Structure prediction request, 505 residues.
Amino acid sequence: MSRIFALVGREIRSQIYAPVAWVVWTLFLLLAGWFFFSLTYQFMVVVDNAAAYAEMMQNREMLEHLNLNELVVSGLFGNLLLLFVFFVPVLTMRAFAEERKQGTDELLLTAPIGAGEVVAGKYLGLLAVTGALVLGAAFYVGVLLRFGDPEKGPIVTGLLGLALAVAALTALGFAVSCLTKSQVVAAVGSFVLFLLLFVVDWPAESAEGVVRTALKALSLPGHFQGFAKGAVSSVDVAYFVSLAALGLFVARTTIASQRWRTP
Amino acid sequence: MIDVLALEKRYGDRAALDGVTFRVERGEIVGFLGPNGAGKTTTLRILSTYLSADGGRARVADHDVTTAPMEVRRKLGYLPEHPPVDLDQTVREYLGFCAALRNVPRRARRTAVDGVVDRCGLGSVAGRLIGNLSKGFRQRVGLAQALVHAPDVVILDEPTVGLDPHQIREIRELIRSLAGDHTVLLSSHILPEVAMTCSRVVVVHRGRVAADLAVDAGAAGGGLEETFLRVTAADASEETSA
Prediction:
């Protein structure tokens, strides 16, 4: 256990001593802020127009249909998910690729620590750094709660969905980083993988039968939608947990088998 | 303490090790010599459990490297060819991490780190980032890492590479001070170096042991060089003709 903690501490230290994590966090907040601003601004304009129209029609009930959750919160969560596709690979790219490059894998793989422990320690450390992105998202939602009156339920489930998505993407990015020596290859590889998961269901509408089902079952935004609208389904949770488990399994297998492959 | 029998390793078609056999007794300091590409690093990597062997067997600290790698790792201090240091951590942080990784209990870690910082002459740089240190200091941090948990067996792959003459002398003293408590196997291609530190040398050549002889620390430098050149001569002439 103390070996895992040591690895977690080392991972977090090495991330916050390097500028990459700070740059990613800052740019994430900047872009998330822009999304947040444009959505709330659109909402204000829509509300203003609707108010004028409702007055003209002498029908106040029309305004009841304008929902802050639907128009701002749900959209914001969807946008943030897309940002993760871009930013998580940058935070996970060095995970194991850099160990290989610097030769520190030789330290880890000759220490009395199993591949499972190495994966657990590094993953938890990475999660602290990528999980901070969810906190950034929570900040903007907090602004809405302070100045507006959205429903709390969908906000909680949306943040839960983001957290699950980050956990899954971090594990997958970690796995890709285990497969190469180059950070750039790791970043591009994870980015392409994530983007593919993001768009995989685009042809689903025109497909039929099992193909359609399969494409929809793989879709990242498809399984996220429910969370953004306030519905937690066990299928969606299982999707993210399975992706995370798959990533960690690949990482563990790659690290454990390194000894048997010719360098 | 180290028992290697007919070890084989192939990289593709090329046989890197072709039946390496030697023993190192408890408390001995043995030099592992050979021309570049003779198979020194490959052998040490197999002994450290970093690589698998394709044939033969190797035991370190009474455990087989293939069937009981974790037992071997618990007893082993290992400095790879490139010191496996974290460039973005301070010397003290890094050594603390290595101690934790090697099961040094939390309460004993500070003492263990202070001990190796002192022994390896790292006192003046203990708080600095390893990435900002010179090659010589990084090498010493790598050495400290291999000793922080007081292992039974120490395997050092070219411990003095990149050091200046003063540092080489300090490291030599340090390695000599390990005799008795620790079993040391160190690779090098600097002959006087080995002659002064080791009690015995094993010369590998083209993946085989070409010589295994005791070093008489006094006048052995010249004799060792003769032997080395003689047993590795075939390689040199073949390489030039190739």
